[in-house]
Design brief:
Elements lengths: L21 E5 L2 H4 L2 H13 L6 E6 L11 H7 L3 E8 L5 E7 L2
Parallel strand pairs: 1-2
Antiparallel strand pairs: 2-4, 3-4
InterPro entries: rSAM_target_put
Protein name: CGCGG family rSAM-modified RiPP protein
Pfam families: rSAM_target_put
Length: about 100
């Protein structure tokens, strides 16, 4: 599994493999301050998602729509994923659904 941060004060977005669809919260205050952390932890989340399922990446609204900074990074890092913009959250964040192919 990728290591999104060498900083022991930053809690990882996932601690296990996910064999069902799930959501990763990438909209905490530390995510608002660090777009690279958002990208890194999004990659961690996709890597931890089992084939045939999906992960909803909930990203901080301060960075704008994830298609503009996250999608190219994920497509470069992974084969066999499909990206879908779901909606804007009531809290201001954005939801990208990443389907992991079997």
């Amino acid at each position: 599994m990728r290591n999104s941060s060498a900083d022991p004060d930053i809690e990882p977005v996932t601690r296990r493999e996910h064999d069902v669809s799930w959501s990763a919260n990438l909209e905490k205050p530390r995510h608002a301050a660090d777009r690279d952390l958002v990208v890194s932890q999004a990659e961690d989340a996709v890597e931890a998602t089992a084939a045939g399922t999906h992960v909803n990446l909930v990203t901080h609204g301060d960075h704008g729509r994830p298609e503009n900074y996250l999608w190219d990074e994920l497509e470069a890092a992974f084969e066999g994923i499909d990206l879908e913009y779901v909606d804007r959250c009531g809290c201001g964040g954005h939801v990208t659904r990443v389907h992991v192919s079997e």
